[in-house]
Amino acid sequence: MLPHYLAHYSTFADRILVWDDKSTDNTRSILSASPLVELRDWPFDTGIDDETFLNFSYAAYRTARGRADWIMWVDVDELIYHPNMRHMLERADGLEVIRTCGFNMIGDGTGIPQFDGRQIYDRFPLGVRAPVYSKPVVFRPHIDIKWNRGKHALEHFKPRVSSNCLLKLLHFRYLGYDYAKARNANNYSRVGIHDGDKGCAWTCAPDYNGEHSAEWTKTLPQHSFNVLEASLYD
Predict the structure, then answer these.
(1) How many C-alpha atoms does 5 have within 13 Å on its Cβ side?
(2) Do 121 and 105 meet the contact criterion of CB atoms below 8 Å apart?
(3) Who's near 81: CB < 8 A, 6+ residues apart?
(4) Would you give the distance in Å from CA 234 to the centre of its chain?
(5) Measured between alpha carbons, how far is residue 164 from residues 80, 121, 180 in Å?
(6) Residue 231: left if φ>0, alpha if ψ -120 to 50, beta else—which one?
(7) Per-residue confidence (pLDDT) for residue 72, from 0 to 100
(8) Highest mean pLDDT among 45-49, 155-159, 207-211
(9) N or C terminus of the chain with fewer C-beta within 10 Å?
(10) Distance between first and last Cα of the chain
(11) Which residues are within 8 A (CB) of 169 and not within 5 positions of it... i.e. 6 or more apart?
(12) What predicted TM-score, i.e. pTM, was given to this entire model?
């Protein structure tokens, strides 16, 4: 997914910060090839889990104060989309958080495609609405933001938020049964490394077959539509 991530955010971002946790694949070389990327090492020896990363985020994003107008704090499989991003952000005076409308993209059912120079959403524009992925992750760095686990919602914090969704969050995660099954198994194994608590990964459990399970992905094509053309207000 990483080449697709860089291809998208390089169209409007001034800087792309990425933390790498001792990757053993081609991640570091892909990142180092981009002039926009500032590659940093994950500062802990205990690995990454949701709770650790959430607490780390609060200190890390503050380093952008005085250096950035907006931050998008996203996972690699999350692409914040607008056909004219720079123009939209420049018009967002008075806002501190911009609402996103989440969509689970479906691809062609075989997982992440090889990067061929095209944006992944131009190749695979179909998806379904995903309210849980309408994440408040586009914000100004001067605020003291507070999220729940996974950054799916704000907690104990009332910033100046856009009244409507102004951006789309395209989530490339549930791209076919085999791909989703492997991703869920990997996520489930990583959760609760320190305390054994896998509660926040319940949708990745091997015996779960509901929404966001591998089995659930088989139902997505029949409900899908062109996300790029969809209205944010339907």
Answers:
(1) 22
(2) yes
(3) 8, 121, 167, 168, 169, 170, 228
(4) 23
(5) 15, 23, 31
(6) beta
(7) 97
(8) 207-211
(9) C
(10) 29
(11) 74, 78, 79, 80, 81, 100, 101, 102, 103, 133, 134, 135, 137
(12) 0.93
Look-up of token digits 């053993």: 24
Name, in order, each residue with C-beta under 8 angstroms of 29's C-beta and a sequence gap of 6 or more: none
What is the pairing mode between strands 71-72 and 97-105? Answer: unpaired
* Model confidence pLDDT, tens digit, residues 89-98: 999 988 999 9
Give residue for tokens 């926040």.
200
Which residue reads 């789309």 in tokens? 168
